[in-house]
Amino acid sequence: MAQTAAPAAPATAAAFPSAADIEAQVVTRKTRRGAGNLFFAQTGTVPHLAPLPERPTLVDYFKLRFMATSNHCLQSANRALSKGMSEEIVLACLLHDTAQDLIKVDHGWWGAQLYEPYVSAKVSFAIRYHQVLRFYEDQEHGYEYPDLYRRLFGHDYRPEPYIERTDQMVRNHKWYLAPRLVTVNDLYAFDPRVQPQLEHFTDIIGRHFKQPKDGLGFDGSPTAHMWRSLAMPDHPL
User: Is 137 helix (H, G, I), strand (E, B) or coil?
Assistant: First the structure.
């Protein structure tokens, strides 16, 4: 399968910081960039969070905890749906970035782990490896390296060796297209006239998400503690 490396600096590289510039900004910040959205305030102070129901569902988390990522994920899932992609791909798009409310570093791996007990292996594969594939163009399938990453990482940034090794594995895997299609729908600008609602996807969630009867975070699954961290981010211990 044809594959291109992360692109070289564009002709307009002066418009973007270098990787060294990004590194120099670390000591100017009051928060780490890898902290999840629930754990810091972009401006001012963090707000009180509404309590979750006794047996919280995925829909409850979307409405009460995934506020920072929900619109982006809804837009991504809506695009996949409008392009006639499979329900598994639509679900992967709906879930792919929600772990960023918990943690941003390696959010693909964190997200796949968060959802593994409740979705198919293909969906978790797509969530896990969209993070890797986003660093590598695939023009055959309509994915270009975004300028956003030149701003976030630097125009001369090269992915870490573990990312490059994982990319080699994924693009030779039978499910390569699953995470690739997540990146294709993982846009950073959507038509503002389109406002998808979570209710558009509840049937897909019902068919492909195994909601535990005791509620997410309280079902004794290997990832229940991750859901509790999202449910109760103000607990000091």
Answer: coil
CA distance 45 to 63: 20
Count of domains for the chain: 1
Do 210 and 117 form a contact (C-beta atoms < 8 A)? Answer: yes
Q: How far separated are the first and last CA of the chain, in Å rounded?
A: 47
Residue 9 within any structural domain of the chain: no
Whether the per-residue pLDDT at 200 is higher than 90: the answer is: yes
The residue count for the chain = 237
Q: For residue 220, what are the contacts with CB-CB under 8 A and spacing of at least 6?
A: 214
Q: How far apart are CA 46 and CA 64, in angstroms?
A: 14
Within-domain flag for 2:
no
Report how far residue 137's alpha carbon sits from residue 72's, in angstroms, rounded to the nearest whole number. 21
Q: Which domain holds residue 195?
A: 18-25+56-228
Mean residue pLDDT of the chain comes to: 92
Query: Is the Cβ–Cβ distance between 130 and 96 less than 8 Å?
Result: yes
CATH at residue 86: 1.10.3210
Given the structure tokens 């998400």, which residue do they identify?
A: 209
Distance of CA 167 to the CA centre of its chain: 17
Angle formed at CA 174 by CA 2 and CA 122, multiple of 5 degrees: 125
pLDDT given for residue 213 in this prediction: 97
Asked if residue 128 belongs to a domain, the reply is yes
Measure the CA–CA gap between 47 and 122, rounded to whole angstroms.
Answer: 36
Classify residue 123 by its DSSP letter: H
Mean local confidence (pLDDT), 122-151: 95
pTM value is: 0.90
